Amino acid sequence: MTGIAIQPQKHLMLFSGRAHPHLAEEVAALVGTPVSPCRLISYANSEIYIRYEESVRGCDAFVIQSHPAPVNEWVMEQLIMVDALKRASARRITVVAPFYPYGRQDKKHLGREPISARLIADLFRTAGADRVMSVDLHASQIQGFFDGPLDHLTALPVLADYVESHYDTAHMTVVSPDAGRVRLSDQWSERLDAPLAIIHKRRDPEKANQVEIAEVVGEVRGRTCLLVDDMIDTGGTMCQAATALLAHGAAAVVAAATHPVLSEPAAQRINATDFQEVVVTNTLPLPLGTDIPKLTVLSIAPLLARAIQEVFTDGSVTSLFDTQRRPAVLPHH
To answer: Among 129, 187, 275, 330, who pairs with 124 as Cys (CB 3.0-4.6 Å)?
Structure first.
């Protein structure tokens, strides 16, 4: 008697760490699958324990975890979650890390330094991840650090849709806050069909060991200037750039960035700078007690949900990379 091969039925399961459960719930609602229950405990000595409360055997698992401070705790939690899924026979495991941890440590600047972004990729792989999904990596070469598929999504269409619907882009100049963000700014310039300007920093030769002074290369006088970056951490670069633009005659300054790290003293700096608006996404939860009246937060959940659905159905994630496409945006404040 010839045996009949039974094709296992695919089923998608979403799991969330404790760093940003609200984002995971948003994604789950859009995907149409609830966040699967699990027991997560931090013991008195800070060790983390997890146990999934239902079978995960044969599932296509997506583990969503943001990485705000304390970064190391949330990295370890996600690694433990992946390990538990692997040992419980999940069929495929995708790490969803909207803000890639240690993404700024992507190369050696000096001898005897680590490449921590590569180490994070190795840890995910060792824990059992088959795939990684992230949004607006600080350095594109991180895509090559993971020995497997890494889906590099971009929030540019989400942010650009908002800017186009709220501002007159015909009188807008896209501005790179430093030389390192020129490539990103160029993508924005192409998307908005707006001219590009660059903040160039140089030291004042008459003042040794003094702060760099900023020169603006490009036409900004009388225009709305859109400062773009992948993240706002302490806010120093963005606020200094905004001050320089206003000093050069900009009519208004708007800032747009994907990741609101907002380490101290970012809130104070932003509130003390004459921004018209600062627009970010919710790849990270805002630090507790953040009070920035000019801050607008857009949801990245629709983009993550579409990417998860494409991966689950073996569709094309590449279609989401096109900055000219305009996925739906769910703004919230």
So the answer is: 129
- Residues labelled as active-site residues: 201
Long-range pairs, 119-124, Cβ under 8 A, ≥24: 120/75, 120/145, 121/145, 121/146, 121/147, 121/150, 123/75, 123/79, 124/78, 124/79, 124/82, 124/95
CATH code of the domain in which 103 resides: 3.40.50.2020
Does residue 3 belong to any structural domain of this protein? Answer: no
Do residues 196 and 116 share a domain?
no
Strands, E assignment, 76-223: 92-97, 131-135, 150-153, 172-176, 196-202, 213-217
Enclosing domain of residue 88: 12-153
Q: How many domains does the chain have?
A: 2
Same domain, 133 and 212: no
- Across residues 84-108, what is the average pLDDT? 97
pLDDT of residue 204: 61
**Domain end marker among 99, 123, 153:** 153
For 160, the token pair is 């650009």
Considering the domain boundaries, does residue 2 fall inside one?
no
Pick from 21-25, 117-121, 317-321: least confident: 317-321
DSSP of 5-55:
PPPPPP-EEEEE-SS-HHHHHHHHHHHT-PBPPEEEEE-TTS-EEEEESS-
pLDDT computed for residue 179 by the predictor: 84
Is 326 contained in some domain? no
User: What percent of the chain has pLDDT above 90?
Assistant: 85
Give the Å distances, CA to CA, from 256 to 10, 203, 214, 232.
39, 27, 20, 9
